[in-house]
Amino acid sequence: MPYTKGLAERALNENLDRLGEGKPDPLNYNIHVAMAQMAMMLEEMLARQESQDERLAMIERGLSNLRRRSQGRGLPSSGVTLPPKANGAAAN
Prior knowledge:
Elements: H1 2-20, H2 29-70
């Protein structure tokens, strides 16, 4: 989680510098917690998006392979034969 880690480290370092100089903490603890929670949610959303992108790419590759196989050769035979279609004229 590089985004989360970077955000947390930056906020911590800024506050430690301020506290070391005797300045008050501009952000209280609740805001720090909310920032960390938002960063974690963003990381989860990014991970989910990457996973969905990978799945979509896999599906697209599968469809491309099916199209390539079906071009020119027709679909593979399943061994099932269908009755001939009626052409509108009644067979006597």
